[in-house]
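Re: that backbone. Tokens:
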């Protein structure tokens, strides 16, 4: 499975930096991609024209990256007429390039783009990613979720533990469970905290120094008492947790809460916690 473009319904361009700006909302990103795509179709595929396009987009958008190491690439745009596939307009298979690889003009260069695979390729099991691909058909949400390894792994490990099996293919035909999982994923793109500074993506480069806050929150969880269930407040009528039966369960739930909270530049928040817990409870009920 090609996580970058698993089918013709969506793709991920997180490595192009599309989420790495202070204007990371869907409407703004989509508007930028549409503008770039329309302008790019009108220029000659010559070095001078391409560099002029790059400079023009940089001046026009003036991006303010959250993480300086992740470049906001001016050549990211739509690669299809329906605006469902986002990616590199310099790619040899991109419209108008006639099979010529122009990626040497981008910030990272052609070899980096050819050889790079983000952490999701290595750290999320194929069985989890196959469910994501089956459930999400929206490029904006897909890119946010597939690159959030903590969220993906913790959610599906919890589901597996609750179901007692690693075979979750049944989820693909369970419309109720699919819908509930999608609702949880949408918390990544819903501005549920209007006064917060959005930090939507948890995408990072391996070895970039961002690993600590994007992939492993073990130390932070221990420091904040996650192991004792500070986030796990779901209970049945007798006061027992309806989701978490072990310390590992609490840690998985905590990672999910923190993954969502990270979206809004928060270490934790009761609104986030409550929404995540309720969403997971609905997922598990739908499965059974």
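Recovered sequence:
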């Amino acid at each position: 499975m090609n996580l970058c473009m698993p089918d013709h319904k969506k793709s991920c361009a997180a490595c192009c930096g599309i989420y790495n700006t202070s204007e990371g909302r869907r409407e703004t990103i989509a508007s930028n991609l549409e503008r770039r795509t329309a302008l790019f179709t009108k220029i000659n595929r010559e070095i001078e024209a391409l560099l002029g396009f790059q400079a023009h987009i940089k001046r026009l958008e003036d991006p303010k990256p959250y993480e300086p190491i992740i470049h906001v690439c001016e050549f990211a745009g739509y690669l299809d007429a329906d605006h469902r596939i986002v990616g590199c307009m310099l790619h040899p298979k991109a419209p108008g390039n006639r099979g010529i690889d122009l990626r040497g003009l981008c910030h990272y260069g052609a070899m980096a783009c050819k050889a790079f695979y983000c952490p999701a390729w290595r750290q999320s099991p194929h069985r989890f990613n196959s469910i994501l691909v089956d459930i999400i058909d929206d490029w904006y949400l897909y890119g946010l979720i597939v690159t959030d390894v903590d969220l993906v792994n913790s959610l599906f490990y919890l589901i597996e533990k609750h179901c007692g099996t690693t075979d979750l293919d049944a989820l693909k035909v369970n419309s109720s469970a699919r819908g509930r999982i999608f609702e949880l994923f949408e918390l990544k793109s819903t501005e549920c905290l209007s006064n917060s500074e959005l930090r939507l993506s948890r995408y990072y480069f391996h070895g970039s120094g961002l690993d600590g806050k994007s992939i492993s929150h073990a130390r932070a969880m221990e420091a904040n008492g996650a192991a004792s269930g500070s986030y796990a407040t779901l209970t049945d009528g007798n006061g027992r947790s309806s989701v978490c039966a072990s310390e590992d369960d609490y840690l998985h739930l905590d990672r999910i809460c923190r993954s969502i909270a990270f979206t809004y530049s928060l270490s934790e928040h009761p609104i986030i916690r409550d929404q995540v817990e309720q969403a997971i409870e609905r997922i598990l009920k739908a499965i059974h």
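Residues 207-241 have pLDDT under 50 and may be disordered. The radius of gyration is 20 Å.
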